[in-house]
Input
Amino acid sequence: MLRENLKKEIDKLNEEQLKKIADFIAFIEFQSRQIESSHPFWQRVTPTERVREFREWVSQLPKNSPSLSDEAISRDTIYEE
Output
């Protein structure tokens, strides 16, 4: 019912009024994107989507970079004597 009434009212508007309506709609859409993006990615998506995004990120890492040596990641070398 509301949708039909709004359509009838919109049909009565002139170009300047329609532009104001279009601007208002754009503002509402912008606000909803801002609210959506205020939540961290991991809260907005499913675990499956998080896994897919993580794997995609990993696939973009350089393949030929050197790995850390065993000594570099050894607990003994982390702490000073």
Summary: The chain has a mean pLDDT of 87. DSSP finds five helices and no strands in the chain. The chain has one domain: 2-78.
